[in-house]
Amino acid sequence: MKIQKASEIKLLLLDVDGVMTDGRIIYDDEGRELKFFHVRDGMGIKFLIEAGIEVGIISGRESKTVSKRARELGISLIYQKISNKIEIYNEILKVKSLKDKNVCYIGDDLNDYPLLKRVGFSVIVSNGTEEIRDKVDYIAKKEGGKGAVREICEIILKSQNRWEEFLKKYHFE
Length: 173
Fold this sequence. Notes:
Elements: E1 11-14, E2 26-27, E3 33-34, H1 39-50, E4 54-58, H2 64-73, E5 77-79, H3 85-96, E6 103-107, H4 113-118, E7 121-124, E8 138-139, H5 148-159, H6 163-169
Parallel strand pairs: 1-4, 1-6, 4-5, 6-7, 7-8
Antiparallel strand pairs: 2-3
Helix pairs in contact: 1-5
């Protein structure tokens, strides 16, 4: 079963628009960009980091809002305005001494496909583009920006028998 690939994950890489957000880009009257992030996605990311699984962002766009959110969550790898995600991915593997099987990537669109083909556990959000749905290991039940990242964080932690420690932390027995 493809979901078992999550047991090998040491690094979660995320696209931003359409994955960490719902894909909308909103500008206010001052021209400032606004993005909506789901708080439970953020908790999932914090759980992974606490469990020793690194989290990174590879985005084709650049946004101060993304930098701020990444800092709040403790995300250590932040790559924005990246046109060739594979190039950056190869660099990350080398620096972190990881193999493809140790990486999960969550994407939502065609530009994510080259990376989705490479990683050990490939995921798209439920509202991801149709053309790549049958080419990934898992399709999240939740939409981008609406809990999909949290869903995958839980899958990773459960597959590594680490989820129970977070339940206990919050007094679930």
